[in-house]
Design a protein that fits this description.
mainly alpha
Length: 258
Amino acid sequence: MSQFTTNKKIFSDKNKIQVALSCVILLFLWEIIALKINNNIYLPTLGEVFISIKEIITDSRFVLDVISTITRCILSFIMALISAFVLGIISNSLNIFKNFLTPLTSLARSIPNMVLIVLTLIWFSKESAPYIVVFIMIFPVLYDAILGSMKNIDKNILEMADLYKISRKDKILNIYLSSIKFSLISILSSTISLGFKIVIAGEVYGQSLYGIGAMIQSEKVNFNTTAIFAWIIIIVIISSLLNLMEKIMLRRVFIWRR
């Protein structure tokens, strides 16, 4: 067992070294190509990008822009999760309701993000567009996961609950919710990351007053490619931090994962 653990650690360290090496090579190629082109409108150098990152971070509105985008992402995710949970329970109980929602969820999964953003901007205000787009894109994923987890619940457990006349509230909290939370763990990271990207896209097209997307749109108008690359790196860092925070919270909430 000890040998297996040692081999696993060596394999993990080897993967990390290879990933780090790949990053160094890509950054080196970026710098070489940027110097060859010698035009920061097309591709800025790493030095120019890092200077731009420093300028963005030290700007007085940086924190407000980041908080605005993250808040939109979290609120949209919570709304989608609550709706998916409630409608998933109803669909599990009423087959006709599930069949009614099937075309809607299939349509939501099929619409390209950009088309949905454009339609949302036509129908709703530019401030509400990011919320609505994220909700529509994330809801089907959460709904399918919740409905699928409830379908997989052992029928004997449900029959036993009915036999002992356990209330609907207790069944939802102790049986359905326990099953659902395990299914949600596997898709939580991907849905939050997806929501974060869609919010930024919605802010870019909706030209929100505050937000990361609003700043990217402003830099695009000014042909400031260097600042756009700087924001891309900032977005990658924020996404990584969100994923790290999520993993820490999951370890605390779901001890069984350790």
